[in-house]
Amino acid sequence: MLTYNMDVEERSTWLRATPGAAALAQPFYCTEAGNFYGRAHFATARTDKESYLLFYTLSGSGLIEQNDQRVELPAGSALLLNCRAPQSYCTAPGQDHWHHYWAHLDGAGVANLAEVLQPQGRLSPVTVSRLEMQPLFESLAAEWEHGAAAQIEICLALHRMLALMARQLLAGDESRSNRTLIEQAAEYIRQHYAEPLSLDSLLAQTPMSKSWFLRLFRQYMGTTPYNFLLSTRITRAKELLVLTDFSVCEIAHQVGFGDESNFSTRFTAMVGQSPQQYRKSAMKPAEN
C-alpha cells in the first residue's frame, strides 16, 4: 500500500523505467529516479516495495522512519533504505522544503553493500560531498533513455554512489574498531590454518556475539570464516604442490585436511583441477 502527498514544485523530475534482461543482469540497476523540490507538506508512506531507495539531500531536510527508527537527513547526507519493510519519509518538521535526489535501485551489488550501509538493520545517514554525489545523479539522469549501452554507465554511477557512502561510513571510529577485530581474526586463521580451527576458537579471540562476528567477517572479508579458512589452506597447498615433492597425502595433512580424499575433492572444486593435475600443469615448461 502506498499513500503520499506530492507537495513538490513543478520543476521536479521523476524518471521511470522497466528494466530489460540486460539491465537486470547488472549488479546495480535502477527502476525509478528523481530530483524532487519537496515543499513543507511533501510526504510518502509505503508498506513494501521490492527495491532499495537511495536519498541524497541537496538543501532543506527530510525525515525517514522505519522499524521504530527515526532519522533526519539534512543537506549533504545520503541514506540507503530497504523498501521491503514499511517505511515513511517526508519534509522534516520545521523545514519549509526538502530538495533531494532519490533512486529506486536493486541488484546483487546493492544487496551486498546494504550490509555495510545498514549495519544490523539500522538507518545510517552518511555525510557525502555534494561535489562527489551530485555529478553521479546527473549522470544517471543523462543516461536514462540511451539504450543498452547506458545500462553499464547507470550501473557504474550507482556503484560509485554506494561506494562513496560505504567509504565514509567505514571511516567512523566504531567501524575502524570492528575492522581491526576482524582483520585480527583473519590473521589468526592465516597463522593457524593447519590446525583444526572452529568458529568457537575464533570467537574466543574476538569479544563479540557469533551472529555479529559472522556478519562483520562477511562485510569486511567478503566471505565466511569457513570459506576464508578453506581458501587459505588451498592457497598454501598450491605452493607446496609446486615448490616441494611432498605427496598429495602429505600436503593434505600439512594444510589441515584430515584425509587426502577430502582435500582432493575441495581442491578440485575450488581450482578446477585435481592436485595432481595442478602440479603437472604448474611445473610444465613454457613453450617458446
Protein structure class: alpha+beta
Helix content: 40-55%
Uncertain spans: none
- Termini distance? 68 Å
Q: What is the helix tally?
A: 11
Q: Give the SSE string.
A: EEHEEEEEEEHEHHHHHHHHH
Any idea what the radius of gyration is?
24 Å
Strand element count: 10
Main pleated-sheet profile: 10 strands, antiparallel
Per DSSP, what share of the residues sits in E-state strands of 2 or more residues? Answer: 15-25%
> Which word captures the global form?
elongated
Average pLDDT over all residues: 90
Please characterize this protein's 3D structure.
This protein is α+β, with helices and mostly antiparallel strands and 288 residues long. The protein has helices spanning 21-24, 108-117, 130-143, 148-170, 173-192, 199-203, 210-221, 225-243, 248-254, 260-271, 275-282, and strands spanning 2-5, 13-16, 29-39, 43-46, 52-66, 69-74, 77-82, 87-91, 97-106, 126-127. Strands 1, 2, 3, 4, 5, 6, 7, 8, 9 and 10 form a 10-stranded antiparallel β-sheet that branches. Strand 5 and strand 6 form a beta hairpin. Helix 2 (108-117) runs parallel beside helix 4 (148-170), helix 3 (130-143) runs antiparallel to helix 4 and helix 5 (173-192) crosses helix 7. It starts with a strand and ends in a 6-residue tail after the last helix. The mean pLDDT is 90.
